[in-house]
Amino acid sequence: MSAYRGLVQLGLGLWTTLRQIGRGASTVSYPEEALKLPPRWRGRPVLTRDPDGDERCVACQLCSAVCPTRCIELQAGEREDERRYPVSFRINFSRCIYCGFCEEACPTLAIQLLDAFAFSTEHHRDLIYEKEALLIDGTGKHPHYNFYRHAGVALHGKDKGQGSNESPPVNGRSNLP
Amino acid sequence: MTLFLMALGMLLTTVVLLGLAGFLVFAERRVLGLLQNRHGPNRLGPFGIGQALADALKLMSKENFVPAFADPVLYRAAPVLVAFSALASFAVVPLDRGFSWAGDWNIGLLFILAMSSLNAYGVFLGGWASGSKFALLGAVRAVAQLVSYELPLGLALLAVVLLSGSLSLNGIVQAQWMPYIVLQPLGFVIFLIAGVAETHRLPFDLPEAESELVAGFNTEYGGMRFGYFFLGEYLGLTLIAVLAAALYLGGWHGPWLPGWIWMLIKTFAVIFIFFWLRASLPRPRYDQLMALGWKILLPLSLLNLLCTAFAAALWRLG
Questions:
Q1: Mean pLDDT in residue range A136-145
Q2: What's the whole-model pTM score?
Q3: How would you write B163-227 as a 3-class SS string?
Q4: Which residues in chain A have their CB less than 8 angstroms from residue B33's CB?
Q5: For A44-61, how does the pLDDT look when each residue is reduced to its tens digit (9 = 90+)?
Q6: Which of B158, B251, B287, B294 could form a disulfide with B173 if both were Cys (CB 3.0 to 4.6 A apart)?
Q7: Structural domain boundaries of chain A?
Q8: CB-closest option in B36, B39, B281 to A20
């Protein structure tokens, strides 16, 4: 009886593998085929700009402080309109572990881990990215967000977002990734 | 002149067989990929067939290293013995009607069994001469396994000899007015299982079980010496497949197509079964392997032989 059952199991096992022939490979031949990256993929960190085209980064050093591998190094400077900005911003990608802590720590959503991931080089020194290489001309994952734009508070006779240099309130849920 | 032509022909046969073994290594990986939802090697050349060449080049360009703790003579001799015994067996295998070196030899089948025993010597000596515990364990397993499965293999073949009345492979193929798999279904299954164990292919690869014994009897081997073991294994696989095709599937007999094409088709079908088994089945425990050999296959093959003999006697009388 057990021999009979064993034979049936054997046959079922063989049938299971034989059935796979027509199904094709589930391998993605990566360099030729594009990968489907998940929406929250953590790729290479970049510095983004706000919708008005200004740098979002305010050089608060939080990303550098939270970085577990200490691969972020920056120097703060101040513009003529008293807005802070990074004079230099340097990430050593031979140490970066793509944990995304810098992105979480960033109060202005400036540093973001976008989807670039294949940038191997021959030398370690080519993996130290300076600010010119990090700063992109887009807004990244948050197209409408601007740290300096605010809706203010409602006062007598003035609703949120109606004062000078105030903008209408944003639906908080629209910011979710 | 004839001698020179013969030598040339033998050289050519050997080269073709070695090429076939190299191709089988590649083909196995592709077939496994097919059965396991992946690609297998597909980079070099059309369908990745250049991978076989690349592997061969890699093995040949490696250092011929003899470990200090190994027995130097036997260590060098064992891989050659394995590859030689597998190659020599092909001399008696007919590819087509009258197309073989010694297909008419009246002890062809015995010769093949003898060569497969010699193959076991190569495996054992290789493991023993390596002077390493993993290799020794693999070698001990190999010998026990080969001895246990040679018996059912020989008994299954004996039934075929009984039916055809010939020990030469040509004679056996000629005697098949219908493929012997119809008359000997049990014998075919026993032959196939014993053949898998005899070539220590998966699922019966206990002599080289890499999850337990590193690489078993060829742990200490590298470069082309390892390549000889590898070639020997794949040539042995081809030999069992060719034998199954010649003894049970009707050899070169078949409609429409020329005989050698039929022979190739049947051989590759059996080889596919080998690959398929590898893709599907897990390795049994060692005691299970022994129990299967001695407690199931041996009585079954004896029973098969007895029934065949009885039927043949009745046939002769009636």
A1: 85
A2: 0.78
A3: HHCCCCHHHHHHHCCCCHHHHCHHHHHHHHHHHHHHCCCCCCCHHHCHHHHCCHHHCCCCHHHHH
A4: 25
A5: 899 999 888 888 899 999
A6: B251
A7: 55-145
A8: B36
- When the candidates are 3.40.50.150, 3.30.70.3270, 3.10.129.10, 3.40.190.120, the CATH number that belongs to A55-145 is 3.30.70.3270
DSSP string, B75-88: HHHHHHHHHHHHHH
Which tokens is A97 given? 């572990």
Residue position matching structure tokens 């076939």: B20
Q: Which of A17, A23, A28, A32 to mutate to test the interface with B (most CBs of B within 10 A)?
A: A17
Are A17 and B276 an interchain contact pair (Cβ–Cβ within 8 Å)? yes
Is position A67 annotated in a ligand binding site?
yes
Q: In a 10 Å sphere around its CB, with 0-12 CB exposed, 13-18 middle and 19+ buried, how is residue A89 labelled?
A: buried
* B chain contacts of residue A23, beta-carbon cutoff 8 Å: 37
* B236 pLDDT above the threshold of 80: yes
pLDDT beyond 70 at A176: no
